[in-house]
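Example complex used in Figure S2.
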Amino acid sequence: MTMPRSYLYFLAVPLVFVADAAFAHAIVVASTPLPNETIAASETEVEVRFNSRVDRARSRLTLVGPGGASVVLPLADGAAETLKSRASGLEDGRYRILWQTLSVDGHITHGEISFQVKR
Amino acid sequence: MQLFIEIYGFLNVTLRGFILTAQSLTLGGLAFLLLPAVAEARLGETARRRAERLIFWSALALCAGEALAAAALGFMLSGTLGLPAGELLGAEAVKIDLLASVLAGAVAFFISSRRDALPAAGLAGLFLLATQIGATHAASRLDHVAGLYVAEFAHMLGVAIWIGGIPYFLIALGAAQTGSRRYVAARFSMISAAGVAMLLGAGVYMAADYLGEPEALYGASYGVMLTAKAGLLLGLLLLGGMNFLTGRELRTDPRGSVSRLRRFAEVEIGVGLTALFCAASLTSLPPARDLPNDRASWNEVVERVEPRWPIRLESPDHASLSTSQPRMIDPGAPRAYAMGETAAPPRNAEDIAWSEYNHHWAGIFVLLMGLLALAEHDRRLAPIAKHWPLTFLGLAGFLFLRADEEVWPLGHLGLIESLRDPEIAQHRLMIVLIILFGLFEWRVRLGKLKAAWAPYVFPVTTAVAAAFLLTHSHGLANPKEEMLIEITHTPLALVGVAAGWARWLELRLDDGPARRIASLVWPVAFILAGLLLMFYREA
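Predicted assembly (658 residues):
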């Protein structure tokens, strides 16, 4: 939740308090795989495209497997607004791609894209 | 580290607001001294020294603020990605902050050295402003980059010349001889008109680009925040227009009172600062054109804000709330989250009813405050109405019971145990502050607190609270719901700003029509706030 519910009550009183959300900017406009997509292969291209240019060296893609084991995916070169990699050795089950990125103007965002492997 | 991640968003917006303020004061002062409209002969030595001192301290504050922003971002990247220091320093955003810090330091150095170093300080200021574009939306856009760079530069320069110039105008006015005041007023009118033109022209260009289409003005958080900023700007233009007319009066009667000019300028500074913090909050949002599928329609907006009677005076049963139910997250969309933001659990109808009930009752308290404050104008009612600050105690009691439903006496968490949660601890602290504030203002009203500063506590804190209501960071997980919350909060914040500064004017102005109007504006603003709360809805 981005604003505490009671934030609203405090208009009439002298309050200065901390909202509980965060600075943010880069948002996902497209991804491969798509959220909740089922793929029938042991490897897949991974690409997350954002609405703004991102600082690739300060961004990360992590693949979390069905058993919870995670691996940081090496990032390949690509367009200025994308994080691109490849996931291989996939077995049947649900995977999650965790992403964190720093947009060029200095805002950090993160999220996850879940997909299923079924061969 | 986890706590830092959780508060990073708010910290960053606040820091960005502080940076924008210090930057505007620094560049506004340099513009005031360097622009040919301020003739050397008209600005006395005393005023000049005071202006240089204010530029120096503003630049130093900017230098520190930028260094802190770089450190905070570096710490955040280090904590979340485990990157070594060398990698952190390579981040474009960190480099921008550090370079801006160095340039602000250079301005402070030049302004504190020889008088003939002023042009060098001005040049460093221009480089500083050009550097700051790297921290704006323009820096990360994929298209129209050149136009946006120019617009961001002009927008920030316009703000600095106008809003940042007002304190220097007050310094010059205070030091000017009676005969020179009209020149000071006339020349600042010229400078600020140029600033306003730059600010508006660039602002309209950026709004068109970042919004994408007019519907985004009411359908997306970015548009709503932009509308709030426009509302503050209208207030500023109104105050500026009044000062322009007062300045013209000075031309016909140089011995005329400059008191009103000063008082309106004080309020311009306050509202201007609020607008700067609102702008800082705006930078935490993706431009509306990037969220074409997460907008509220006009009908949805109308349905959310349309007053409905009866209001909710009966609470749902506490047992029906979802606080103890397992958390479910819909994985169906590629959600982005701001740092520290997590997916909120779904809320059931009872949760919404609980929250609406809280808001509606809080609205009744605030409405009562406004009505009593208005009744204080009537001599027959004043003996009773002057006790209106005691209403704060009722509000505090209500919030103690209802603000955090999971805490004693209604919930399962003990009072002490609940304080481990930062948000709950914060709410409890606020409740204590409300009690203290209510008792403080009550004693002011009764004349038991004689200190000259005591009456100003109420307007300043009300205006600051309202400014902070505008200056929040934004989550990204549910842009549409975020916007619908925004559209109910933003008018509240704006009437809060109006209430705080109207009361300030009432205290500061000499007796006359302006003072009488101000004395009515702030109770009416409280009444409006009460009504907005009473008709607040979450579904």
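Residues 1-24 of chain A have pLDDT under 50 and may be disordered. Chain A has no helices and eight strands.
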